[in-house]
Amino acid sequence: MAEPSATEATPRPASPSARDGASVRLLAVAGGLALALVAGFALGEVVRDSARPTGSAPRGGPTGTSMHTSGGAGHQHAGGAAAAASAEVDGLAVSAGGYTLVPETSSFTAGARSTWRFRVAGPDRKPVTNFAIVHDKPMHLIVARRDFSGYQHLHPTMAPDGTWSVDLALPQAGAWRAYADFAAVSSAKAQVPLTLGVDLTVPGDYRPRPLPAAARESVVDGFTVTYEGTPRLGETQALVFRVSQDGSPVADLQRYLGAYGHLVVLREGDLGYVHVHPETQLIGGAVKFWLTAASPGRYRMFFDFQVGGRVHTAEFTLVVR
Question: How far is CA 241 from CA 61, 223, 263, in A?
């Protein structure tokens, strides 16, 4: 093959005007890309803000509240008039945020009382032994059958090796759900609030009870409990519970676990769990909560309150449309 000539091998230098034109075109392209990136970011913010439900809390949580998230789902401890509950539910998984609920057994005999033991394994797969005190206890255990009967709010005790134990009796055959509600303390000393759930089984003739009709009044142990407020999908709404006896308001409600009442809400179908807490003070003698409905459907509400040193639980069926 013939060697190329010097003219062919050496490119001719561009003229000053050509170089200036290329520079202008390069700047124009770079400027256009920058504008596109800025516009795209702004549009994304607009879309995210417009997608947020009407009446929901802004990102970062509402003023005066302490929001506890659990692997994408959350519950909220109210601490002011602007408090709001998360629109998500907890307790649907045995593992979240690197933590796993590990029961020693999941099978029970109907009516037999026994000691149930479980552990919480951390991200290092070792039992967690450091828990924060939340509402006077390091661990809250909620148990209910799949038809919402047999509700129990228990407080296990922990051994030095991280094994939790609780005296537990499941009175009837069927499928049950246990929720461990806690805040683990990580190696970095950060609190990690979680609600983990696990199924428990009681062999036998399972006859589910029909869900009671929705009502705003519940009678328990001689007390009449009513509630006001209508939860709406995607909107934070107040629920106000009043306790009366013999037609007169109960004036001596006592604090239970640091509050005048506790409210657990379970969703029909998957038993999604919402645990909200009230305003720190009574409002006109009533206990006030904040709740955001996670989805349309039926829910069962369990309201714990204390009078005369004894805890009572009023139950309600709630329908969200």
Answer: 24, 12, 10
